[in-house]
Write a structure and sequence with these properties.
Elements: H1 14-32, H2 39-55, H3 72-76, H4 88-93, H5 112-124, H6 130-141, H7 144-160, E1 179-181, E2 188-189, E3 195-196, E4 200-204, E5 209-211, E6 216-224, E7 228-234, E8 239-249, E9 258-259, E10 264-268, E11 285-293, E12 298-301, H8 304-318
Antiparallel strand pairs: 1-4, 2-3, 4-11, 5-10, 6-7, 6-9, 7-8, 8-10, 8-11, 11-12
Helix pairs in contact: 1-2, 2-7, 6-7
Protein name: M23 family metallopeptidase
Domain M23ase beta-sheet core: 196-294
Pfam families: Peptidase_M23 (PF01551)
């Protein structure tokens, strides 16, 4: 007898899958947090590691809920002849830092629970204060820029009490104001020497509100001879968002403030291309740039595709 079996495809909603991943990570962070190491510090280190794995070819991408990965030397001990050692006893004997976090008798650097417990054990050695956390990060990474990035992520997670901070919007209001833009990445610029355009120009009237596209921490405010009055915001994905040629700032905004999508940063202007206060050398517009930090260097990348996507999403939300 021939039986015909019909197999129907199962479609998994991408947003639901992402939600499940967030929940799994939060569960792990909360499980292994301690009074000395709150969940948002663990999450900040983990997110930083995830960020650099996405943009660095020389670092293997850890295919798991937790992105933190330790070197063999750190985990098993520098002089341990067995680089894949999972015995807590011999790891401790050789001065390794790997721990058994789930009670299975193994200290496995490929196990998420063992990894988180090991990171907690390391951070706890330094103490509970924010300065202690910075000292621990310095001993581990030896890089001030990395420490600042992780502290930014930590501040955002702590402030919003969540790791779900991926929402973005268009940097100008999509209703009630006229604006226009196109892809201008790589176009030549002559003022101040030969250079290329590292961003997208969005033309609009003077004073059109400039909005934060993302969650982030204000890293820079002030004058730049090229960008005029500008604001720089760092998000939890190691991305620096650059808003330039402003006419004015939001008077309530200052360096160190935490912003979210839609926070007013200032107004569109035509400042720049000269000494402080220079304005009117070009039509009013917002220069929007994006820069990525990979743990070593920072480079600009084309924001235009993101702006098109965020504009569409913002318009749909405004319906």
């Amino acid at each position: 007898m021939f039986v015909c079996l019909y197999i129907f495809p199962v479609y998994v909603n991408a947003s639901e899958n992402k939600e499940n991943i967030y929940q799994e990570r939060m569960h792990l962070y909360k499980t292994y947090e301690t009074p000395f190491v709150p969940w948002h510090r663990l999450a900040a280190v983990d997110q930083y590691e995830r960020n650099i794995q996405e943009v660095r070819k020389d670092i293997p991408k850890r295919d798991s809920a937790i992105a933190i990965q330790f070197s063999h030397e750190f985990w098993v001990g520098e002089f341990n002849p067995n680089v894949e050692d999972t015995s807590p006893f011999t790891i401790q004997y050789f001065g390794g830092n790997g721990h058994d976090g789930n009670g299975d008798g193994k200290a496995d650097r490929n196990d998420d629970q063992d990894v988180l417990f090991t990171m907690v054990s390391y951070l706890e050695k330094f103490g509970p204060s924010e300065e202690d956390f910075k000292n621990a990060l310095w001993e581990y990474y030896k890089n001030e820029k990395i420490i600042n990035q992780i502290m930014t992520i930590n501040e955002l997670y702590k402030h919003f009490n969540t790791i779900q901070l991926d929402k973005h919007i268009f940097p100008l209001p999509v209703r009630g104001y006229n604006y226009s833009y196109k892809g201008t990445w790589g176009a030549s610029r002559g003022w101040g020497g030969r250079r290329i355009h590292e961003g997208t120009d969005i033309f609009a009237g003077y004073g059109t509100p400039v909005l934060s596209t993302s969650y982030g921490v204000v890293e820079v405010m002030g004058w730049n001879q090229f960008g005029g009055w500008r604001v720089g915001i760092r998000d939890h994905h190691n991305t620096y968002h650059y808003y330039a040629h402003l006419a004015y700032y939001n008077k309530d905004l200052k360096v160190g403030d935490i912003v979210e999508p839609g926070t007013i940063l200032g107004g569109v202007g035509s400042s720049g291309y000269g000494k402080e206060g220079t304005s009117g050398k070009f039509p009013p517009h917002l220069h929007y740039g994006m820069y990525k930090f990979n743990g070593r260097t920072e480079w600009a990348f084309d924001p235009y595709p993101y702006l098109v996507q965020w504009e569409k999403q913002t318009k749909q939300e405004k319906k």
